[in-house]
Structures are given as C-alpha cells and as structure tokens.
Amino acid sequence: YVQSESSQWIARLLAPTPGAVIVDCAAAPGGKASHLAELAGPKGRVIALDINHAGLLRARKSALTLGHRNIDLVCADLTAATPFRAGQFGFVMLDAPCTGLGTLREHPEIRWRLKPDDPARMGQVQLRMLTQAAGLTRLGGAIVYSVCSLAPEEGSHVIDAFLAQRPEFAIEHKPAVHPALAGALQPDGTLVTRPDLDGRDGFFAVRLKRVR
C-alpha cells in the first residue's frame, strides 16, 4: 500500500476544489480518502470504492476517528464494472493495486514472493481498472493514476497503453500542485519518488485530464 506521505501527495496531485465530489476508486484502507475529504472540505464528498469489504470497514473506522462525515463507502469490483453513470465526476482517484516494489525498504519480503512476470500481469489489471475509472470522468475533469512501484510495466507502460486507447485524455504536464510536490514532478508530467534519491518510498503518479 502507499505510505501516508505518499497518500497525501497523490491527493494533492488530484487537487480537488472545495465542495467537489470525488471518487476514490481503490480506497481501502482509507488513507487517501481521508486526505481527499480534507481537501474537499465539509461541503464536498468522497465516494470510497473498493472490492475489499473488510478494508472499507477500516476506512470507515479511520474516517470516524478523524471526524470525516463526508465519505461514502461502496463495495464494487472496478475490474468488472463501475456502479456509477459514465462521465459523472470532475475528480477521480485510482491508486491501483500493484506489486509494491517501491516499498521494499519496509516490506523486504516482497522480493521473495514476486515472480518475474508479476509487474506485467499487474499492469494488465491496472489498465483495466484505469479504463473503468477514467470512464467516470467528465469533460474537463481529472483523474490521478498512481502505484507504489517504479516498474515501468505498472507505471509508464500502463499510461502509454491507456492513452493509445483513450485519446480523449491527456497528461497534464504542468498541473497546479502543492509546492512540496514540485521537485518530484518530471518534465513529462509524471510524479516520481525514489528511495535512492530522496529517501521516500518509490511511487509513480500522473494527473490526466479529459480534454474531449
């Protein structure tokens, strides 16, 4: 999973406006949803969607502990379909399930359980999820895709394949982001952190805008 600081960064990359309705498409265990709820404010709403019912219950507990009353929980399988009408939301988040290769410092056991083809296999799952999640985004809206992995099969390759299929979306190369994020933004618009460069867990994120 993405660590707390990374959850905050990708929520800030989405940069929802106060009062916005946001869909967090892989929300468990709830860290991102809480950050998004703070950014949206009491007049906004976060729809926390996940296939993991137990994870959603943890998200509910976390939201209640933090005093967030603007988070709704929905149990659904994003790889199959979404329970919402297409083109309905201005802000969508997909912090997709991944190999977790960016968190090896805290989870060294990952290296022993992964198989060589796991990044590519997960990339196919992530592409399906991104395609479904992006379908919820309305014209002019934004979706953030992120993974706690630096494997290109789960990051840039997924984005390249998605954009080839869905030309109505484009990478925002210069999104308006919090100053703390600016140093991690790459010239191609992706947000990347690396343990060997900045001491943070490795993750990849990008903000896509629906332009037509």
List keywords for this structure.
single chain, 212 residues, alpha/beta
What can you tell me about this protein's structure?
The chain is an alpha/beta fold and 212 residues long. It is 35% helix and 22% strand. The chain has helices at residues 4-14, 31-40, 53-66, 110-113, 118-134, 156-165, 179-182, 195-198; strands at residues 21-24, 45-50, 71-75, 89-95, 137-147, 169-171, 191-193, 203-210. Strands 1, 2, 3, 4, 5, 6, 7 and 8 form an eight-stranded mixed sheet that branches. Helix 3 links the parallel strand 2 and strand 3 (71-75). Helix 1 (4-14) packs across helix 2 (31-40) and helix 5 (118-134) crosses helix 6 (156-165). The model has no long low-confidence stretch (mean pLDDT 91).
Helices and strands in order, then pairings?
Elements: H1 4-14, E1 21-24, H2 31-40, E2 45-50, H3 53-66, E3 71-75, E4 89-95, H4 110-113, H5 118-134, E5 137-147, H6 156-165, E6 169-171, H7 179-182, E7 191-193, H8 195-198, E8 203-210
Parallel strand pairs: 1-2, 1-4, 2-3, 4-5
Antiparallel strand pairs: 5-8, 6-8, 7-8
Helix pairs in contact: 1-2, 5-6
| Class by alpha and beta content | alpha/beta
Shape: globular
pLDDT < 50 stretches: none
* Proportion of beta-strand residues: 15-25%
Helix-residue proportion: 25-40%
Q: Cα-atom Rg, whole angstroms?
A: 16 Å
For the terminal residues, how far apart are their CA atoms?
33 Å
How is the biggest beta sheet arranged? 8 strands, mixed
Run of helices and strands: HEHEHEEHHEHEHEHE
The quaternary structure here is single chain
Mean pLDDT: 91
The total of helices stands at 8
- Strand tally, please? 8
